[in-house]
Every structure is written in structure tokens, then in C-alpha cells.
């Protein structure tokens, strides 16, 4: 068996076992209501962080608008569920359909946004994705959707005109958001999580993934060997957006009310923190970081206030330790200590040269 | 018509504040080739410093303003030394994430000290009556913002083009290695750039918090991001570009608030950024730089 395949199976198995054990413990009542309540959000956040890892870790572009794609998925899926609530009464079927609809909507947004955004790189790309996230948030803050006997009425201003007062039902109420049916169950989250994990890990190991990593490591070199840079970047970006949208659908169906202000810049940053601290490009790292960083502050409420502060410091410290020349030298010296000789593989030859600026 | 003029004047006032912030972004970007995400939060720190200083009885307004600007300047230099300097040779993604970390750190420190609710900021010119020119009433804050920004922009342009330190900044932003060979102290120049940029953020914090008399830990982030949009709009790295971009963006924002939708004005500002980057990624005054292999 290939090493990567084995690694992927271990990662999938790890997640599956963890959730099955936790699921059983929670249904047996061992876990307590507080921890059981965390399982669904943790699953959703894992989906978000592995999808962001595809953009940041594999593609090497900093996207600060991940919450925007989640927002699109959450609201499109949520509105869809509310509309078909009377037709499709089976909750698992309804959420499956909602996931498909929300995922496709987020993918379409990914394409629409990706085409202009992916012409840019680095800082510009980061700030434009941030801008898109804010645009999506402020537009959703102003959507008013009302259903009555005549059909759907849509407006950007508060009392929606021309509605039949007797039968009017608010579906999307601007800054107050939507009330989607609570269809998300732990089983559905785990199934979606496994599917997205397998999709992402296979994408990373495929031709597309290798092309993306080549582009990340050296854009010009990748271009010069004939890699269609735009195409592969777009594919990775859209897959990442679609999976974020799916996570959004799960999210909107797990809460009683979902207001657009939830999808702000801070949410994007929080997911980015999970990805960076887990290790860029490592799916297993993202999963572990998400579980630890999400669950610990919820369990230790006392440190809750300091959570973000600690994240910020760890984020800075981690970047400096990994990249500053002084610490890099120190780390190399540490690795060269004779104590570690037996861990080093003997036939590995250190790569020389080829360091790009 | 009168209301249009007053919207326009307010837009120019907001725009000149954006221009001051954008100058900080553009100078740092030009010289260190990094997007200083924490720039907006330096404004917030400045605002809170002045707020705290003014709420103590013994501190007069002028002294509070000076304290605020000094604190911003020192903070800028410290951030550069501690967080950015070790990463000079690091990949851009690492630097960007560090900058986001610094921004987050400042926000959360302010959050722990002052809480998340916004507090009302006393304008530094609270007892001065608004001026009426030809039927248009303009508040003192608006006039001061425009005048102060204009003076600063003129001084900055003179400083950069006429003094030795200013020319050194231009040289370092052009080519770091060559500048070092010519005997320019690159590290000192970069620190100076951060100091000037942060001092400008300090001035901007006075103007911003006086014009929009509220302050919270999130005060700085939106104006900061918009000022970055302004810097890109004008052509990043270009000092006149930042000024023009800032003022144009302020006018666009205020007019769209007045005539389109106050809720969607943020979306419109970001739309401007996206259109600019698609149509002319180098901005109004920017130079096109070809990537060398």
C-alpha cells in the first residue's frame, strides 16, 4: 500500500473512531450535556478548517473570506429547507437536499469570486477575499424574504411591499437571519465530515493537488513547465468554497436562529487559526488543532476570556519560531545532535541548492 | 444641491482620514513589502490612549493628543522590532499571518481592558460651534480633519523628497540590497517608516474618534481595511496615490451612504476595490512591476 493512502486511512479512521466513541458516550450519558453539545459544532469546524487548509496550505493563498462561503451555503440551504418544509417531511432527506443545494450555491459563488480573485496573489488576494466576505455579510444583513399565498417576495428594505398580510411568513429577516429546521444530527455531520475529508485528501494526492503544490512552491516554475495555473487554482478554490458551503448548511440547521453577523471577519480568522496552528497543508493537524482549540476553552470556561489573546500570541510565536533565521539555525543544530542519529533514515540525502528567493 | 455639497465635504473629511491611514499602509508596504494588518488597530490603541488620558482630570486635551500620538509611534516601532523584523526573509504568507496575529492581539488586549461595548469619545473640539459657509453647515471636526490632513500630506511629501532620511526611505523601497551598499542603514530606515506610519495612525485616531465620537476595540479594524482599499485604489507604494485614493474612497463611501443605502455602503467600498483590482491592479498612480525570475 502506498504511504499516502495508509496515512489517509489512518486520519479517516482516527476521526471516525473518535466520533463513534464520543457518540456512544454521549448517548450513554457519560459525556454530560455540555460536551455532547460540542460534538456537532466541532465536526462542522473540522469541515471548515480542512476546506480552508486546501486553499491556505495546499494552494498557498491566504483566503480571509471563508466565512463568506459558509454564509452562502448556510442561507441558501436554510432558505431551501424552510421552503420545502411542508413538502419534504423526512428530516434526513431534507438536509441531504439542502446540503446539495447549499454546496452548489457556494461552489457557484466560488467560481464567480475565484475568477477575478485568482488573477491576484498574496496580499492582494487576501484583502480581496476579505472584501468579498464582508460584501456577502452586508448583503445578507439586508435581505428580506417573505412568503405568502402569491409566492415569494424579496426586498432589500424592511417592510417588504406588496405582501398579503394574512398569509405572510418571514423567511429571511435581514439582520435577524433565518430559522431553519433543526435537522443536523451528529450522524449526518460525521458522514459529511468523512466525505469531505476523503474528497480533500484524494484531491491533494491527485494530479490537481500536486499541480497546486507546485504552484504554491514556485509560481513561475510551475507555469514554465506547462501547468495550467489558473485552472488548478480555480479547482482547488471552488472545492474549498463548496465544502465550506456544506459546512454552512450543517451549521444553519444546527442552530435555532442564525443571524448574518455571525459570519464576520473574526470567524474567518478563527478558522485560519485552527489551520495555521494545526500545520499548513496537514489535514490531520487541522483536525487535531480544531478539536483541541475548540473544546478546551469550552471546557475551561475560566480561560474563555483569554482564549483569543492566547491564540493571537501563539499565532505570532509560531510564525516567528518557524521562520526567523535565528530559531531556524537553532532548530537545525538541535536536529543535528547525535542523540537523534538513530531516528534519521540512513539513505536520505539532504537536498542541496535550488533555494528560491 | 446644498445637501450634496455637505455630503461631499463630509466625504472629503472622512477621505482625508482614510488618506492619513492609507499613507501608513503604503509607506510600510513600499519599504517592507508587507501588508501591516495591525495598522488599523494602532488607530484603536491611539484612540483608547487619548480617551483614557482625557478622562483623567489633570490632563489637558492637547497633552492627551500628544500622548496618544507618541504611544502609537512607540507601538509601531515595537511591533516592527518584535514581530516583523525576525521575518524579513520569511515567505509572505508567514508575514501576513503574523500581522493578522498582531492585529488580533491588540484587539483582544483592548477587549480585556475596556470591554466590548463602545464608549462615547469626547471630541477634542467639542465646544467649537459649526461654521456655515453659503448655507452649508460644516462641523469643526470636518474642517480640522481636512486642514490637518492637508498639512501633514504636504509636510510628508517635502520630508520624503527633500531630506536625507526621506530619500533613504525611497532608496530602500526601491532596492534594499543596493541601498545597504550605498551606506544606508536599512533597519533604521524601516523602523523610521513604521514610526512615521504609526504616528500618522495616531493623528488619524484623533480625527476619526472626534468625527465619529465612539470607541471600541473594533474601532480600528474597518477604517484600517478601508484605508488599505484606498491605498490599493491609489496604487500601493505611491504616496500621492494614497492621498488621492483615500479622499476618493471617502467621497464614494459618503455619497453611497447618502444616495444608495447606508447599510450597503461597506459592500460598495469593497466593490470599488474589486473593480480596481480587476481593471487596473496597479491602481491610479501605481507603476507596473514585472516579476523577475
Provide the succession of SSEs of chain A: HHHHHEEEHHHHHHHH
Largest beta sheet of chain A, briefly?
Answer: 3 strands, antiparallel
Say how many strands of chain B there are: 4
Examine the coordinates and then state which fold CATH places here, giving the name of the CATH topology of chain A: ABC transporter involved in vitamin B12 uptake, BtuC
Beta-strand residue fraction of chain B: under 5%
Keywords:
heterodimer, A: 357 residues, mainly alpha, ABC transporter involved in vitamin B12 uptake, BtuC, 3-stranded antiparallel β-sheet, 13 helices, 67% helix, disordered C terminus, B: 293 residues, two-stranded antiparallel ribbon, 4 strands, 72% helix
Overall description:
The complex is a heterodimer of chains A (357) and B (293). Chain A is mostly helical and 357 residues long. Chain A has helices at 3-28, 32-58, 66-84, 91-117, 122-140, 186-205, 207-217, 219-224, 229-252, 265-278, 283-299, 307-323, 325-335; strands at 144-148, 151-155, 169-173. Chain A has one domain (34-299): ABC transporter involved in vitamin B12 uptake, BtuC, CATH 1.10.3470. Chain A contains 13 helices and three strands. In chain A, helix 1 (3-28) runs antiparallel to helix 2 (32-58), helix 2 packs antiparallel against helix 9 (229-252) and helix 2 packs across helix 10. The two termini of chain A are 37 Å apart. Chain B has eleven helices and four strands. In chain B, 72% of the residues lie in helices and 3% in strands. Chain B has helices at residues 2-32, 39-55, 61-84, 92-114, 140-162, 164-174, 176-181, 186-211, 221-234, 239-259, 265-279, and strands at residues 119-120, 131-133, 136-138, 214-215. Chain B starts with a helix and ends in a 14-residue tail after the last helix. Chain B has 293 residues and is mainly alpha-helical. Chain B is globular, with a radius of gyration of 19 Å. In chain B, strands 1-4 form a two-stranded antiparallel ribbon. Chain B has a domain at 16-219. The A-B interface holds A 56, 60, 62, 116, 119-120, 122-124, 126-128, 130-132, 134-135, 138-139, 141-142, 156, 220, 265, 269, 272, 276, 280, 305-306, 308-309, 311-313, 315-316, 319-320, 322-327 and B 29, 34-35, 83, 86-87, 89-98, 100-102, 104-105, 107-109, 111-112, 221, 225, 228-229, 232, 261, 263-264, 266-267, 270-271, 273-274, 277-278, 281, 291, 293.
